[in-house]
Write a structure and sequence with these properties.
mainly beta, six-stranded mixed β-sheet, four-stranded antiparallel β-sheet, about 0% helix, about 45% strand
Length: about 120
């Protein structure tokens, strides 16, 4: 069965960095677009970054463009999200999602809290 296991979240001060990882199994990871999505308290789930199956193209929402970098290692079935210059509004549970957008199969999420 499809499994997506996120890790790397935590508490960080504004301006800090975190790197999220997602270990994928149970499907042909190199064949799929992958997405990082997040859900802040009281808000809808939103996608923040997407990457093509081969890693050649990436897409970001405006609020994270230039600060976040999505990448993947198809040999290791792992998806990454490097987050720099974190802001309080980045506080959310972050999910690894199979496919394009926030609507696909996702993992259990990892909490990211940005606070001084």
């Amino acid at each position: 069965q499809v499994q997506l296991v996120e890790s790397g979240g935590g508490l960080v001060q504004p301006g800090g960095s975190l790197r999220l990882s997602c270990a994928a199994s149970g499907f042909a990871f190199p064949m799929y677009y992958m997405t990082w999505a997040r859900q802040a308290p009281g808000r809808d789930l939103e996608w923040v970054a997407q990457i093509t199956h081969d890693g050649r193209k990436t897409y970001y929402i405006d609020s994270v463009e230039g600060r976040f970098t999505i990448s993947r290692d198809n040999a290791d079935n792992t998806l990454y999200l490097q987050m720099n210059d974190l802001k309080s509004e980045d506080t959310a549970v972050y999910y690894c999602v199979r496919g394009r957008g926030a609507g696909g199969t996702r993992g259990q999420g990892t909490q990211v809290t940005v606070s001084s």
